[in-house]
Amino acid sequence: MARFEEFVEELLDFLLTRLDEAGFERLVAHEPRRMCAPFIFSGGGRVEQRGMWFTGCCACSRIHSGGFGGDIKAEAWPCFHVRSLTLQFADDLDYCQGWRPEYALFASGRLIHQDDD
């Protein structure tokens, strides 16, 4: 099994023990994988392309071949769709409020759904 961040593994364990077959199929469509998001770095009179590794969703994280500017807008895992799968278990004692869909993030760590969006 692939190893991810602790948060990702906790959410996967939580869902895998609770989802029915239809929910499992939706989860598989948004499976996590390690990705590299290339970005352009400029500083000190030079420009170079760098990459940031993150866990992203196979369906939602679109990596641009030319790289990103200053703001990486690839959706990190758990994506909005996976977070939505957790809502049916919100009353479960092991449910984490941080899994709610409104906390979906870009790989850069910025919330996707900002209050002013």
Topology readout:
Elements: H1 6-16, H2 21-29, E1 32-43, E2 46-57, H3 80-86
Antiparallel strand pairs: 1-2
Protein name: SWIM-type domain-containing protein
How would you explain this protein's 3D organization?
This protein is an alpha+beta fold. It has three helices and two strands; from the N terminus they run H-H-E-E-H. It has helices at residues 6-16, 21-29, 80-86, and strands spanning 32-43, 46-57. The protein has a two-stranded antiparallel ribbon with strand order 1-2. Strand 1 (32-43) and strand 2 form a beta hairpin. It comes from Nonomuraea rosea.
Unreliable sequence segments: none
The overall strand count is 2
Structural class: alpha+beta
DSSP summary: helix tally: 3
Strand order of the largest sheet: 1-2
What percent of residues adopt helix (DSSP H or I)? 10-25%
Largest sheet: 2 strands, antiparallel
Question: Distance N terminus to C terminus?
Answer: 37 Å
Which shape, going by the Cα principal axes?
elongated
Quaternary assembly: single chain
Rounded mean pLDDT is 83
Radius of gyration: 16 Å
Query: Approximately what portion of the residues adopt beta-strand conformation?
Result: 15-25%
Task: Provide the succession of SSEs.
Answer: HHEEH
Protein name: SWIM-type domain-containing protein
